[in-house]
Amino acid sequence: MTTDELTTAVPTAAAPDRLRRLRSVPPIWLVLAVALAVIIWRDPSFAEPPSLMAFLKRCAPLLVAALGELFVIVSGEFDLSIGALMTACVVVAARVGDGDPTRTWWVIPLLLGLGVVVGLVNGLVTTLLRVPSFIATLGSMLVLNGATFLWTGGSPTGALADNLRRVGRSGITGLPVIGQLPWAVLVFVVVAVGATLLLHRTRFGHQVFAVGGGVRAATLSGVDVWRTRTAAFVLSALSAVIAAILLAGFAGLSQDAGAGYEFQAITTVVLAGAVLGGGRGSTVATVGGALTLQALFTLLNIFGYPKPLRDTAEGLLIIAAGAYTAYRARRSG
Prior knowledge:
This protein is 75% helix and 3% strand. The protein is mostly helical. A two-stranded antiparallel ribbon has the order 1-2.
């Protein structure tokens, strides 16, 4: 082979390799790139580092909640209670803390304890009583919403302490280029890294995938199904508590602070390619899903569309993402 023929053959052989690498990239990241390009086209200031940091800070509660939801969905179940739990956490923190910074140090453990209780109830009702998780967590959502309404009389009282809100609304200031690095961004990076290691690099994570892939096969392999699924529900509830603390930071006290987050979290996970029947999912793709969903909401706001249209778009997204995931599953056998 001559030198010219060799030079021509190398790029030809390298082209399929580049195409295979491109196909291996989760589609959600390509959608995110397109969405961000359109946002920057309409609003060039969005590309400035401070604006990007503000965008990531807004994404943080959804991202943390979605990562918790991912564990439940990969295990083959649903958790519809996270939005109501987030609202309850914000209301409890304001009512019990009453704006006193000295109370924050025991208010946060109280909220985490509430999350553990809700997660355990959801998990045990689903696994031991064999109530479908859709029904069990829907019931938990109604119980939490009703209890919160009765406790507050429909109008939350108290105040969120400044040191509690600092996590969600402030950060490390005086940094070059970006100006401020929000604490919320650091929190979701830590949660994302921890979730990735737990789901993809530990025995527990492998058990979650095994249970979602097939309960009988997982049982025959020695996996304790009810413990694994209950632990997934507890992780989901704890993620909702962390998301509520971040949300309270920049959104403040509201009687519907977490409304809709359960559906946004499920939409995020489905957009990321997780199978609703369980057995497949990725934390890295879920991060891309959360960023993409928030970017699409930002686009709708830029174009001046009202919130009802945003809800419609979210519904269409989850249908389209679910159809695409089912199509890929059929193609892969």
